[in-house]
Design a protein that fits this description.
mainly alpha, Ferritin, elongated, about 0% strand, about 220 residues, 2 domains
Length: about 220
């Protein structure tokens, strides 16, 4: 929403409240935030930021849904295409929320944003693992034989967890780069690997930012 971005950049409470009234579904907050106070100003800015993020997520998910018609597995069983769609939607959510990392202050809020995104990345990687298996073997892997992935404790995360995750992501980047070197130019496989690489790089940058902040906050 460009109007929200503009009013957050050039703050005007009356205009901000008007925009909030137009887009919010919360009657309670509409009543609460009618008058300008220091508390209401902070609360209104937070609520507008949430509305902006939700709108961007919805936009990205809609775009991802349209991309479903261009499936890389058009003749695959329904469960495979649904898995691909799930991956696309998760990827869209991460892409839409990357801007949060630049907007939230350092410290606890940044760590919360990082851990939330790490949980989504884990789900994306799980989808990729299954889709790669289908590409190579023509069927999805047996759930009982799938490699166990590291669970991320979203309630508490420390510097050691961040560092271990960063090391893993750097390994993913190296492996993906090697696969890209062997991929056919302009092929679907090349595009998929490029998407993976960009996702790994995004996570690497986020983790490096969190680790830099961890010196003072963790």
């Amino acid at each position: 929403m460009n109007a929200i971005h503009e009013v957050l950049k050039h703050w005007n409470y009356e205009r901000a409240y008007q925009i909030f009234r137009e887009h919010s579904t919360s009657h309670f907050l509409k009543e609460l935030l009618q008058n300008e106070t220091s508390f209401n100003t902070k609360k209104l800015q937070q609520e507008l930021q949430k509305l902006s993020e939700k709108a961007e997520v919805a936009k990205q998910v809609e775009k991802s849904t349209k991309e479903f018609s261009k499936s890389k597995f058009p003749n695959a069983p329904e469960e495979v295409r649904q898995l691909e769609q799930q991956k696309n939607e998760l990827f869209a959510i991460v892409s839409a929320n990357k801007m949060r990392l630049d907007l939230v202050p350092e410290g606890e809020q940044l760590n919360e944003a990082i851990t939330e995104l790490m949980g989504i990345w884990e789900k994306i990687y799980a989808c990729w693992d299954q889709l790669d298996h289908y590409r190579e073997h023509g069927k999805l892997p047996d759930p009982a034989r799938q490699p166990e992935r590291i669970e991320i404790d979203t309630e508490k995360i420390d510097r050691a967890q961040l560092q271990k995750r960063l090391s893993n992501v750097r390994t993913y980047i190296s492996r993906t780069n090697k696969k890209l070197e062997k991929a056919e130019t302009d092929s679907d496989r090349q595009k998929e690997l490029e998407e993976k690489l960009q996702q790994h790089i995004t996570e690497r940058d986020a983790l490096e930012k969190a680790l830099a902040d961890a010196k003072d906050s963790l």
